[in-house]
Amino acid sequence: MKQVQPELLRQSDVLRMTGLGRTTLYRLRRQGEFPEPRAVGGTTTIAWRRKDVEAWIDNLPSAGE
């Protein structure tokens, strides 16, 4: 049976997927270099769309570049 991946990611998921630290994530967001999260179920809960985070990862330069 195929495991269903959630479409929305909480901050801990984003940090785990990207290998970024929390401070770096905030800095990249402020600089407009990381996708913005979406408000979920109220004003204080945020989550990132999985496709946005995966696209950001896919667009990172290769280690040799």
Write a structural description.
The structure is a single chain. By secondary structure, the protein is α+β, with helices and mostly antiparallel strands. It has 3 helices and 3 strands, in the order βααββα. It has a 3-stranded antiparallel β-sheet. Strand 2 and strand 3 form a beta hairpin. The longest helix has 9 residues. The protein is globular, with a radius of gyration of 13 Å.
Q: Beta-strand level of the residues, as a percent range?
A: 5-15%
- Overall mean pLDDT stands at 91
Poorly predicted sequence stretches spanning 5 or more consecutive residues: none
From the N-terminal CA to the C-terminal CA, the straight-line distance is 39 Å
Shape type: globular
User: What strand order characterises the main sheet?
Assistant: 1-3-2
Strand segment count: 3
Tell me about the biggest sheet?
A: 3 strands, antiparallel
Number of helices: 3
- Based on helices, strands and strand pairing, what is the structural class? alpha+beta
Helix content bin:
40-55%
Order of SSEs:
EHHEEH
Number of domains: 1
Q: How much is the radius of gyration in Å?
A: 13 Å
